[in-house]
Design goal:
The complex is a heterodimer of chains A (523) and B (251). With 523 residues, chain A is an all-beta fold. Chain A contains two helices and 38 strands. A five-stranded mixed beta sheet of chain A has the order 1-32-33-34-35, with no helix packed on it. A four-stranded antiparallel beta sheet of chain A has the order 2-38-37-36, with no helix packed on it. Chain A starts with a helix and ends with a strand. Chain B has eight helices and five strands; from the N terminus they run αααααααβββββα. Classes of the chains: A mainly beta (523), B alpha+beta (251).
Chain lengths: 523, 251
Amino acid sequence: MKWFLLLPIVASAQVTNQQLLNASKAPENWLMYSGDYRSMRHSGLTEITPANAGKLTLQWAYQAKIVEKFETTPVVVDGVMYITLPPSDVVALDAATGVRLWEYKRRMPPKAQVCCGQVNRGVAVHGERVFIATVDAHMVALDRKTGRVLWDTEMTDYKPGYSGTHAPLMVKDKVIAGVAGGEYGIRGFIDAYDVATGVRKWRFYTVPGPGEFGHDTWAGDSWKTGGAPLWITGSYDPELNLTYWGTGNPGPDWNGDVRKGDNLFSCSVVALDADTGERKWHFQFTPHDEHDWDATQIMTLLDRPIRGRDRKVLVTANRNGFYYVLDRATGEFLHGKAYVKQTWAEGLDDRGRPIRRPGKLPTAEGNHVYPQVAGGTNWNSPSYSPVTDLFYVPVREGGSLYYKGAADYKPGRRFQGGFFNNEQVAHDWYGAVRALDPSTGEMKWEHRLQVPPWAGVLSTAGGVVFAGTDDGYFKALDASTGRDLWNVNLGGRVIASPMSFAAGGAQRVAIAAGSGLFVFGLR
Amino acid sequence: MRLLFALLATGVYAQTRESNPYSLKDAAALAHGKQLYSYYCVFCHGMDGVSGRGAQLASTYRKHGSSDREMYRTIADGVPGTEMSGHWIDEDEIWKIVLFVRQFEAGAAAKRCAAPGDAARGESIFNGKGGCRNCHSKTSRLGPDLAGIGASRSIEHLRESIVEPDKAISRAYRVARLKTVNGESVRGILLNQDEYTVHVLDAAERIRSFRRTQLAELALPKESPMPSYAKTLQASEIDDVLAFLCAGGSR
């Protein structure tokens, strides 16, 4: 019967925990924001190779009616693609043709505030549900078949400056996400909600309250407006049952006088028990940050020998300019190395703590420090390829002028304590995609870009790395050498990370650029 | 946070009022406005509203309007085709900047530059021997139109632009020198360069489009497309041209 054949497009089977655990083994799908629980941002598909990438052509495009930045990474389940549009809409598309199946439009209250745009980066899927964390700080579950709202839970009152912008992380029976708002003096947290009911199961405050571990790293009442927001999706190790989250800047950003101390757990990675939210360990990349160097980068989980011993590690290229290798069972610092020009630290000590140079903090007149305020890299994705055993990072070279100013907290207002200027010091800025040795952080190759990119990278088992540029190009590089294989100008800035899936057995690569989503393939 | 896209987001914060909610008597607002001005404005306009390479703000005349509403628009949306970009700042912060700029006006009146030369002689040099009009007119894209320039730039700035044009080069008029793989040499104004392409406006105002793979050499020297007139014009002739510009400039 004909309708029966069409059914898989409209009503695909449940997404099971088993599928999520084995996401990388089914590369025709892309089941979560970073592809798999290890957040490798790697596709196992092999059809596109350095030999044929030059023949990539547009298969379809989806034009969104938006003016805000388009930061989504699509999720694909059995022929259906789920994307988010700013501020907090969800659209389901036929992954083979781009034809729209349904749309969830969320009306946004006028004062929902986000520092850098009312953006959203993607969904999570589980069972028959799709989840989005919204700019007005709700977690919403939709029916995957229809887009109908199943439940809608307020995470917190958005008005003081809380928002949801990142794709949730789905673990077992809980959907997990944190709140953004690091420029509004929020107190950051990470929440887990029951997938069936939307009832909150646990909350972890990224700024500890009285009596909690780390509370004494905040002077006086500064913890109440300490920031440490969440705006990029965490990773998960099922054997350790730990989720890993990179946290954002302490508030106010550029004036630390009112928050003396290390300011835990800002600019850190926290390892939280997936069932209880209990903190197992933390590692702070930038204690008492005063440069706005959020640690909201994707935490990549690898297993590899480090100095002769097999380790379960977590690797990350941090916004502060250093690449880190941590033991992800214990949080032990194993290795660190600068991967971009930085002028603020002599290096890292034995425990990974930066050895600060004097005179590198923001000043009233402006202080020229490297890396730039947006960091050596930012939220846009890195990628790890098990084929080449390289870690790929989109990097931003150059410094900023950092200014220290007054910091008065008023609910719902920006709480920044200063500012920055890039224009006046942009003469030596450039971008690159760099391939690092994952164990040492040593650079193996570099592909230079004119402008520091806001696009992430994707590696594929066919030996290709996909990257995007701020001047609108989407390009394919040889994963072994960084050689330019193919490019196309999409006519709008690429402020998103690419992903790959298969439709009808053919490999596809998708990227958002400008206000469009573009899907490429060989056939 | 990710980054405040100071250059992006034209009109993200919609203007909701016609006039400034803050008054010059509000010392706190003025102090905050001064701080914001020091972040966003000082590099081009100077802390005194005079000394930068941007338009003089210590004046009651502003080319793009001096009403509260017009100044708000100029800050929020920028001025297309110039180096003045839009700013993605909260509405009340824009109003505080407007307030700080407003306090420059005390005693400034409609300031116009004054030069010792003869404006009529200056006009004939501008149109004739100096060749200025070839690039500075309403129709040329090789240089900015100088109509009304005397009201928005200081005499020192204008003199420097004539005598030492390489000293401060507007980003809208950067020079590109390139040589193609076929041996053609082009000097022009850099319109755009991205990952794979370069566009220049050549001396005949043709837009030339190149793929980087077509280029054997590409240099972006720190030179203005405008020649120095320190040797080709007498000091008195430069004064005449300056007098012409101060009096209104090219019509």
